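Changelog-adjacent note: as of this version, every example in the card shows the full chain rather than a window. The one below runs 517 residues end to end.
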Amino acid sequence: MMTIPEYYAGKNVLISGATGFMGKVLLEKLLRSCPEVRAVYVMVRSKAGHSPQARIADMINCKLFERLQDEQPGFAEKIVAVSSDLTKPELDLSKEDQSILAENVNVVFHCAATVRFSEPLKDAVQLNVLATQMMLALAHRMKHLEIFLHVSTAYANCNRELIEEVVYQPPVDYRKLIDTLDWMDDGLVTAMTPRLIGEHPNTYTFTKSLTEYLVQQEAGDLNVAIVRPSIVGASWKEPFPGWIDNFNGPSGIFIAAGKGILRTMRASNDAVADLVPVDVVINATLAAAWYSGSQTLNRPKNLLVYNCTTGGINPFRWGEVEYHINMSFKTNPLEQAFRRPNVNLRSNPFAYQYWTTVSHTLPALLYDGYLRLTGRNPRMMKTITRLHKAMMVLEYFTSHSWVWNTDNIAMLLANMSPEDKKMFNFDVRQLHWAEYMESYCMGTKKYVLNEELSGLPAARKHLNKLRNIRYTFNTVLVVLIWRVFIARSQMARNIWYFVVSLCFKFLSYFRASSTMR
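Full-length structure tokens:
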């Protein structure tokens, strides 16, 4: 078979969701590693008064594209912004753009979706299900299309313990659901949502399950493949370690822990944290499209699904995540931390509620009281409330583990040349979690919070100050307990003196032993 760069040479590629986290990385990697690609059409809507062209020009000026800019200064000429809106009929594409795409596109990467777990069901169906249906309709008109690759999620079928690389039939017919939602008002849809989504934890995984089935049913004679990433995190290696640009998913939780705001979290220490670096997902996506697209004569009989996960190959547990977060942010702290990083996982609901009150709510109330006294606006309780909502959404995924079948991923890797395996590496057996977590935490500091490394000495000094404040507070608390409770009881005083004298004897013994040596 031809190599991956050879396959994309001369091809016209269409990407939906190119301004999203994964879409950006896909665009950058495709242009950098497949320099002979002819053109990349990116579907972008106007936003906040900025045209699609202006949004793309602004996007490619970010840190992510610096390496590409150095290696291929003229890369932007290959990017063609196409005005589109997934929420409108026919994707809001002009007749001219529809004709251009139908005549020229060879490869489609459908990455666009809402990743908000709490999205209202109507909106989630529109953005995830109906938009994919319209993308498929557009793809059927493309005269030279070789592969339509749909990016789903490994949690589309999270109501199952064992998840094979197949498309499962959802409990609800997507056609009937679309028709039903069309006449239902928002209030009725909200009331019906829990029953409609059934065993799914949110509208995101539910609609992603529907979408996979839709792709299978409506693909027709199209060559289609599905890639299912799990929890997508910062980059592992490309274009540089630790790149991340958002607070979504684990990134926001990591930052809250680094700032000392998050102190406790509902999770199981033994549950597998199925994190997968974004560059691993993108490399697997490009390889999957290459494999299916290049087999024009020997097309796979069944739609190929790829579970792009780490849990079954190189497992990393939430207890280990907790340890590495605490260690990383103590070594390389974030600026102006609220408290020293020390997040703890709680699986017991009662223990979790207790520590949430003690570690989150009470300190937030005290800090807001201090802000009011100093004439400033209170803000910590709002932050804590938002944090708790985010953690409630993630609880299901931090408390469960799944068994993933990854035979197709292994097959894909086996069919790649040694050069492609190096350039498009998605072999997570090589992933060293301690190094990755350190890069991830540093990435949130550098790329999300835009903190300079030159500020590390001041951040460490601030962390030491917080430690001294904590020690002082604990000392004052012990003295108060002594004065209020112990000093008033003869029995308590006797116990106290006994403990102190015992400690003194131990110290004297060790001192005498060291002197004799």
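Structural remarks: The first helix runs from residue 4 to 8.
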